[in-house]
């Protein structure tokens, strides 16, 4: 059964319980008024009333149909016992009204939504009505009980039906909204993927932003301006989803990872060349690495080169890529100032986050070899699949 | 939106992604139109039945009234109020009634109550009770279904109290008929209480179901999805970066950059880098929890390896449902969030492989299935009283074990996952066919 229907039934049972218990306990309270009925009748009616309450609770806890039928039966028995008295006290009449208007029909709220619930509730209501009519026909003057019976069963049944129809309508609409939203999510996911896939673009954007964050010091104003303009144009293309020419297509989503590597390297080289650092590339040009790993390696590489550019004091760096069965190594070497690795706060270089952090997410690591005056070598390692 | 707002909204609790918020606005739509209108119709019918019943009762007790207008002025007042309400509702078509008119009509309900109580005053010993005054409760039933439930409920309780007091004040002369008067007072309140329980239950159900339905879409995402909110933030960051770079490129911002612009660039770079590097271990489960108004308050997910991404679609569905049901249980004592820990016992590179979108060929099935372990810590929920559906759902996630006491316990689930199912039903997977 669908969960929403379970929720519906739970709610219906709650309503039925409130109605049934108010009716049963209300009737019992009426019977406590002195003189409402003879002693024997009183005992029977109180027992029946308690029985009704218990059966209503049982029915509204587990939805048991026999309990529902029992609740109606005990309520009708109450009606019969009180209705056959010689004279009916007003308090007893009130008890009868509450029993027949609330206690007995309370089960209609839950029963009406069952399969074949309408005939079931209809026949229970008819039986109740017959009992009420009999009582009136056998001498009781006012038709109050008949009216209460009709009203109680109609109200209970219409509340049950209204809720059932309401929830069915809501469920259909919720399904619709859910499906539409799933489509939205898939679209959003694809869009985000596309953005994340534009890694090369983001690498250059990040590099440019870092330069700007340092107020563009150390780079020619014209070169920086052109770099920023290029990046802005590519970001705009990405945003508009415009058809891309071949050159920028490689920037967004290269066709294969071999292309990717050369494209990436070329773009990294150009980027740093524009900013005054010449990068020489040695070693394997093709790497069979999972995307995430390649991503991390190239990202870390870019960060290392940025550090060289900013801190080493030279305008040339070498990148050597080698691999064996298990590991791919990239070495970034410069002949610059160098530094004492122990004394430099690594966080200050953005090293911990952007280099070590990136590599660690793919199971790699980074080591720094440097001393003042003798240049710096950073060894980046990532595992092969 | 600037970076600043992005930074703020990133940390301060629950916020739906914009697309989800749009869909969630459908709550009102569902509540007031789809289903809600049918419910209101049914409630109105029930209210009408109660009114007709009380009218019939009026006719029955008519002979007991002394000569004079009897209870009819009160009934005419009720009819006028209902008439004005219905007519203005029809003329204001879809709009709710203006508040002023609504308040006026509610206040006007004093008139029939007053007329009826004074017409029946001192006659209770004959069995004459107010009827039109009791019908006020029924009149309020459709009002509660269309507008809020609180005010109608308060008005009805006030009405019932007046009727009860009137009956009790006449007790010395009325004797046993006092009970009849009290029963009529109950008849004024009980139908409305039932209607209010129905309406509130319905609204609560709609809100919860819709919320669940919205986050259920996370189930169908890839093992390591970006998430709608992150996706929107990334788009926004890209746009902010574009604006800044364009300003620099076109010379609107001078080089060297003014301090303010440089700082902006630094913040953007940091945020963008974080967005691109981090969140790789986010899974559908985390997105489901953070994007749900309901779950985000009740469930905390700890999934450092993104292992939940290895679960199949049916397992995800049931895990989400189980958390949903657990979150819905009534709590004892202070509410502690349910804590979910997901770990993978076989932490190889499934995630990256699956993320690369190449798992559909047969060779993949040779790989051992990763086993995902899920620990759910529940505090303050009676274990015995858990809904059977909860255990049912947990059972469909994997084999489970329960440790702990009756009120605080831990459910340990071992899930065998199907390595061939990365549950990437999305077009996104098809859009990126490149292998690793």
What is CATH's topology name of the largest domain in chain A? Heat Shock Protein 90
Spatial arrangement of strands, main beta sheet of chain A: 1-2-3-5-4
SSE pattern of chain A, N- to C-terminal:
HHHHHHHHHHHEHEEHEE
Number of domains of chain A: 2
Topology, element by element:
The complex is a heterodimer of chains A (385) and B (436).
Chain A: H1 3-31, H2 39-62, H3 65-83, H4 90-103, H5 106-111, H6 117-137, H7 144-197, H8 199-213, H9 221-240, H10 246-252, H11 257-274, E1 278-283, H12 291-312, E2 316-323, E3 327-334, H13 351-361, E4 365-370, E5 376-383
Parallel strand pairs in A: 1-2
Antiparallel strand pairs in A: 2-3, 3-5, 4-5
Helix pairs in contact in A: 1-2, 1-4, 1-7, 2-3, 3-4, 3-6, 4-7, 6-7, 8-9, 8-11, 11-12, 12-13
Chain B: H1 3-11, H2 18-24, H3 26-32, H4 36-61, H5 72-91, H6 99-108, H7 110-120, H8 132-146, H9 150-169, H10 171-174, H11 177-216, H12 228-249, H13 259-277, H14 284-291, E1 299-302, H15 313-328, E2 338-344, H16 350-355, E3 371-379, H17 388-397, E4 399-404, E5 408-416, H18 427-431
Parallel strand pairs in B: 1-2
Antiparallel strand pairs in B: 2-3, 3-5, 4-5
Account of the 3D structure:
The complex is a heterodimer of chains A (385) and B (436). The radius of gyration of chain A is 41 Å and the shape is rod-shaped. Mean pLDDT of chain A is 82; it is low at 243-250. With 385 residues, chain A is of the alpha+beta class. Chain A has helices at residues 3-31, 39-62, 65-83, 90-103, 106-111, 117-137, 144-197, 199-213, 221-240, 246-252, 257-274, 291-312, 351-361; strands at residues 278-283, 316-323, 327-334, 365-370, 376-383. Chain A has two domains: 3-175, no CATH class; 198-383, Heat Shock Protein 90 (2-Layer Sandwich), CATH 3.30.565.10. In chain A, α1 (3-31) runs antiparallel to α4 (90-103) and α4 runs parallel beside α7. With 436 residues, chain B is of the alpha+beta class. Chain B has three domains: 1-20 and 228-281; 35-212; 282-431, Heat Shock Protein 90 (2-Layer Sandwich). In chain B, 58% of the residues lie in helices and 8% in strands. Chain B has helices spanning 3-11, 18-24, 26-32, 36-61, 72-91, 99-108, 110-120, 132-146, 150-169, 171-174, 177-216, 228-249, 259-277, 284-291, 313-328, 350-355, 388-397, 427-431, and strands at 299-302, 338-344, 371-379, 399-404, 408-416. A five-stranded mixed sheet of chain B has the order 1-2-3-5-4. In chain B, α4 runs antiparallel to α11. The relative contact order of chain B is 0.09. The model of chain B is unreliable at 1-13, 347-367 and 421-436 (pLDDT under 50).
């Amino acid at each position: 059964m669908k969960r929403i229907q379970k929720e519906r039934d739970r709610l219906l049972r709650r309503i039925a319980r409130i109605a049934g218990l108010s009716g049963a306990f209300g009737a019992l309270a009426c019977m406590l008024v002195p003189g409402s009925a003879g002693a024997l009748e009183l005992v029977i009616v109180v027992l029946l009333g308690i029985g009704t309450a218990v059966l209503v609770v049982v029915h509204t806890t587990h939805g048991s149909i026999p309990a529902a039928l029992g609740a109606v039966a005990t309520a009708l028995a109450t009606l019969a016992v009180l209705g056959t008295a010689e004279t009916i006290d007003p308090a007893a009449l009130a008890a009868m009204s509450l029993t027949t208007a609330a206690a007995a029909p309370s089960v209609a709220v839950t029963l009406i939504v069952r399969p074949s619930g309408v005939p079931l509730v209809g026949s229970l209501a008819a039986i109740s009505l017959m009992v009420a009519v009999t009582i009136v026909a056998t001498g009781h003057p006012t038709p109050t009980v008949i009216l209460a019976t009709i009203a109680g069963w109609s109200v209970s049944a219409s509340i049950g039906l209204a809720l059932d129809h309401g929830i069915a309508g809501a469920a259909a609409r919720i399904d619709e909204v859910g499906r539409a939203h799933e489509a939205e999510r898939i679209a959003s996911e694809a869009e985000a993927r596309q953005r994340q896939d534009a890694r090369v673009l983001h690498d250059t954007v990040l590099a440019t932003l870092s330069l700007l964050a340092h107020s563009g010091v150390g780079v020619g104003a014209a070169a920086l301006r052109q770099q920023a303009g290029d990046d802005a144009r590519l970001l705009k293309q990405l945003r508009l989803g415009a058809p891309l020419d071949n050159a920028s297509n490689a920037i967004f989503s290269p066709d294969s990872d071999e292309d990717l590597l050369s494209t990436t390297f070329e773009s990294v080289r150009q980027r740093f060349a524009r900013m005054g650092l010449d990068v020489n590339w040695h070693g394997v040009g093709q790497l069979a690495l999972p995307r995430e790993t390649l991503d991390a390696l190239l990202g870390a590489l870019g960060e290392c080169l940025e550090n060289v550019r900013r801190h080493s004091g030279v305008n040339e760096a070498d990148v050597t890529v080698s691999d064996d069965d298990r590991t791919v190594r990239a070495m970034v070497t410069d002949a610059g100032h160098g530094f004492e690795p122990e004394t430099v706060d690594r966080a200050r270089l953005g090293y911990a986050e952007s280099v070590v952090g990136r590599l660690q997410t793919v199971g790699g690591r980074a080591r720094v070899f440097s001393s003042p005056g003798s240049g710096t070598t950073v060894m980046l390692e990532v595992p092969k699949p | 939106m600037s970076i600043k707002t992005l930074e703020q909204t990133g940390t301060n609790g629950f916020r739906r992604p914009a697309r989800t918020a749009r869909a969630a606005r459908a709550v009102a739509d569902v509540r007031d139109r789809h289903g809600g209108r049918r419910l209101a119709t049914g409630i109105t019918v029930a209210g009408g039945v109660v009114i007709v019943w009380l009218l019939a009762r009026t006719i029955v007790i008519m002979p007991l009234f002394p000569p004079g207008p009897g209870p009819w002025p009160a009934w005419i007042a009720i009819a006028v109020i209902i008439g004005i309400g219905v007519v203005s509702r029809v003329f204001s078509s879809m709009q709710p009634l203006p508040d002023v008119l609504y308040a006026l009509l509610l206040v006007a309900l004093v008139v029939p109550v007053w007329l009826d109580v004074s017409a029946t005053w001192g006659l209770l010993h004959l069995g004459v009770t107010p009827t039109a005054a009791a019908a006020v409760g029924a009149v309020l039933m459709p009002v509660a279904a269309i507008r809020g439930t609180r005010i109608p409920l308060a008005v009805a309780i006030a009405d019932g109290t007046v009727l009860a007091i009137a009956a009790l004040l006449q007790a010395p002369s009325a004797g046993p008929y006092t009970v009849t008067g009290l029963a009529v007072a109950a008849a004024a309140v009980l139908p409305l209480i039932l209607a209010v329980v129905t309406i509130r239950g319905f609204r609560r159900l709609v809100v919860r179901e819709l919320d669940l339905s919205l986050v259920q879409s996370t189930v169908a995402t890839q093992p390591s999805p970006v998430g709608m909110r992150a996706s929107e933030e990334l788009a926004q960051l890209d746009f902010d970066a574009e604006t800044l770079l364009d300003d620099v490129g076109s010379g609107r911002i001078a080089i060297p950059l003014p301090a303010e612009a440089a700082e902006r660039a630094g913040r953007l770079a940091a945020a963008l880098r974080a967005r691109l590097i981090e969140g790789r271990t986010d899974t559908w489960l985390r997105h489901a929890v953070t994007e749900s108004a309901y779950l985000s308050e009740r469930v905390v997910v700890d999934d450092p390896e993104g292992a939940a991404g290895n679960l199949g679609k049916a397992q995800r569905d049931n895990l989400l449902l189980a958390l949903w049901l657990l979150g819905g249980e009534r709590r004892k004592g202070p509410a502690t969030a349910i804590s979910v820990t997901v770990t993978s016992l076989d932490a190889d590179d499934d995630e990256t492989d699956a993320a690369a979108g190449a798992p559909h060929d047969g060779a993949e099935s040779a790989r051992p299935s990763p086993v995902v372990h899920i620990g759910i810590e529940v505090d303050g929920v009676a274990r015995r009283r858990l809904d059977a559906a909860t255990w049912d759902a947990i059972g469909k996630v994997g084999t489970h074990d329960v440790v702990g006491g009756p009120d605080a316990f831990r459910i340990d689930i071992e899930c065998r996952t199907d390595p061939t199912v990365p549950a990437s039903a999305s077009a996104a997977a098809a859009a990126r066919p490149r292998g690793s």
